[in-house]
Specification:
The chain has about 140 residues and is mostly helical.
Length: about 140
Amino acid sequence: MDTTQRLQYRWAAGLLLVQGVLMEGLVFIGVLVLLALRIPQTTIVENADVFALPYLQENLYLMMAMSGIFAALHVLGAVGLLRNRLWGLALSLINCVVTLALMVLLLPAGLLDGVLSGAALVLLLFARFGQTPDGRPKLIL
């Protein structure tokens, strides 16, 4: 693996770590705090418009809990990338594609998710399919 590929994988892993820890993980910790303080979901829903879709807004605590699953998967994929494991690449690619597909439903919060996942996806694809070791572009045929 050449230096450019290694750098692209590291940047993609960094983006996925930021997304997993800061965007998804902190939300999950937030729902744990809210549940520990016994704050009802209706109080949060009345005072905050997080999602454009009413169904998602009404089930805000479930969405926040689900965020923990996404956080774990993003962090796990990033760790796999940093350890140069093929499963890390596969998991990260799947995470990016799923996040990009779901970002439309999670507006406006999904915009930053889309930016981070989209940038990570491009870096992963460039690293995997971009150039041969001698610097020439990889061709389709």
